[in-house]
Amino acid sequence: MKIAIIGGSGFVGTKLIDTLSVSPETSVINIDKQPSQTHASISVIGNVLDPDSLSHALIGVNTVVLLAAEHRDDVSPTSLYYDVNVQGMQNTLEAMEKQGVKQIVFTSSVAIYGWIKIIPTNPFPPTLLTIMAKANGKLN
């Protein structure tokens, strides 16, 4: 099985690659916009904002683990939150479809919502897409 870790050059991705690489039945590739200091030999420079290179990097892959995200509080411009987290997901899904990849493991964290000052009482919080669209002025 060939697994592509998209955004695997950071701490979590490095540890995941370490864990997956011990299985002789598993081949792992890291696709990231930053070079991996630990796993350079299995890494390809790529970006979820570049659908063509992403699609090319997914040739022969069975499963994608999507770790790529903008999640720091000081990202500039702030439109990168939408571009990477929403459009990047769409680009990933389209590249997977083009290459016939049928499995994805998507990870996320509360960091995508930003620092919350008031805890909401609504039991049905807005979806990520709604939050991201509002943050980027695409929804009133």
Question: Can you describe what's shown?
Answer:
The protein is an alpha/beta fold and 140 residues long. It has a single domain (2-135), classed as 3-Layer(aba) Sandwich (Rossmann fold). It contains four helices and five strands, in the order βαββαβαβα. It has helices at residues 11-20, 51-57, 79-99, 128-135, and strands spanning 2-6, 27-32, 43-45, 63-66, 103-106. Helix 1 (11-20) links the parallel strand 1 (2-6) and strand 2. Helix 2 (51-57) packs across helix 3 (79-99) and helix 3 crosses helix 4.
Give the structure's gist in a few sentences:
The chain has 4 helices and 5 strands. The chain has helices at 11-20, 51-57, 79-99, 128-135, and strands at 2-6, 27-32, 43-45, 63-66, 103-106. A 5-stranded parallel β-sheet has the order 3-2-1-4-5, with helices on both faces.
